[in-house]
Amino acid sequence: MAKPKLNNNKMREVKLEKVILNIGGTGEKLDKGFILLQKLSGKSPVRVKATKRIPTWSVRPGMEVGTKVTLRGADALEMLKKLLPAIDNTLKEKQIQNNFLSFGIHEYIEIPGMEYIREVGIMGLEITAVFTRPGKSVEKKKVKRGKTRRLVVTSQEIIDYLVTKFKTTVLMKRKKGQAETEDDSE
Q1: Quick check: is 5 in a domain?
Q2: Is the pTM of this model over 0.85?
Q3: Residue 52's domain is classified under what CATH number?
């Protein structure tokens, strides 16, 4: 006798944990990125420092190499609603992984409602949205840390979430067998 699948289990719900906006760069680009993230999110961004030495890029430990801001809760949901139309509500399958999705915007003026900021100029940014389930915080405890393998949000569940909440189109990668059969039918 097979067990019925429970679709209304509250502990299996997928929810948006946080949205991270970041811009990489040094010097003047870093300052411009800081201003852009401040205007875009309404929050105060933090500067990211390098931890490794990369001689080919003249990067040394402690050098500021980027800026980021993290949004949680209702702010994160509103920001994702605001940013997805900038890429025409279309994502590629490879941009979605287990537990998160990432995409970039080439120019911030593509975001609906954003106007050109003279002191920033034209610049892009990267967006990462992290998804979770209730109970995921168990792995962050110091005592009696639980096993959370079952709490992984799969890429298919994230795709379903995006389609229902934001009406997003996800471009699926064609497999080799599909490409050949579609060419034959034409």
Answers
A1: no
A2: no
A3: 3.30.1440.10
Band of pLDDT at residue 185, cut at 50, 70 and 90: very low
- Its domain, for residue 29, covers 14-185
Instruction: Tell me how many domains the chain contains.
Output: 1
For residue 149, pLDDT beyond 90: no
SS (H, E, C) the chain: CCCCCCCCCHHHCCEEEEEEEEEECCCHHHHHHHHHHHHHHCCCCEEEECCCCEHHHCECCCCEEEEEEEEECHHHHHHHHHHHHHHCCEEEHHHEECCEEEEEECCHHHCCCCCCCCCCCCCCEEEEEEEECCCHHHHHCCCCCCCCHHHCCCHHHHHHHHHHHHCCEEECCCCHHHHHHHHHHC
Residue 1 lies in a domain: no
**Tokens (6 digits) for 11:** 């502990």
